[in-house]
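Worked example 2:
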Amino acid sequence: MPARILMRALAALALLTAVLSMDPRPAHAQEVTLSVAISMKEVVEELGRRFMAARPGVTLRYNLGSSGELQKQIEAGAPIDLFISAAPRQMDELEKKGLVLAATRRVFARNVLTVVKPADSRIDLTKPSDLLDPRVTKIVIGSPKTVPVGQYAEESLRALGLWERLQAKLVFAENVRQALDYVARGEVDAGFVYTTDAATRAKQVKEAFRPAEDTYRPILYPVAVVAGAKHPAVAQAYVDLLLSRDGQAVLARFGFLPPPAGVR
């Protein structure tokens, strides 16, 4: 074989070997898992797109559900980097067990409880006592055992003296979006959700009334990096985004309120 042809063949072989050995992933690819209260779904996904666009090689994975179920997963050792809860209670319990990094914990948003009914409902509901109306046969709330919106709903109904009187009508959902779905499909007559959730189904549900905010604890959203996170620095950067001006603007656009001054 002529030397020139041999050299070309060897060069081609070297190039092919180099191409085949190339890893298509960025050199510092990082997959970060966020366990997120489902009521925060749209916000974290929108902010996540911005976050990833600014950080080539970073991929965010979302694990959505009720805060109580997400808490149980972290306690069971699930590989989570960041936890966003719809109530302080679940975060408090994880912090006591040393399962989140206390120094990273921040409250970044607030919400409001509302009662919704199907958009085509003819039942006039304007105040809590209207739930006693015989025409109201099913009321959905999140399961108070694991779902913050259910815990807030129970607090409010107890404060109003209605909890025991409405027991026979209550239907329990696994999370706030399931509760919203029940109302949207007309499977129940009313349901307790957050105002931000009601806004996502404006054509299928309508607000009936909002329980007085002094009948339940403030609905606060804490976030924290999980102890043992594989990518704590990236997770902390996402916390910073939530607290930033841009993050707060996105939260406001989806109907969330800023956290009370001085609350962490």
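The mean pLDDT is 91. The longest helix spans residues 3-21.
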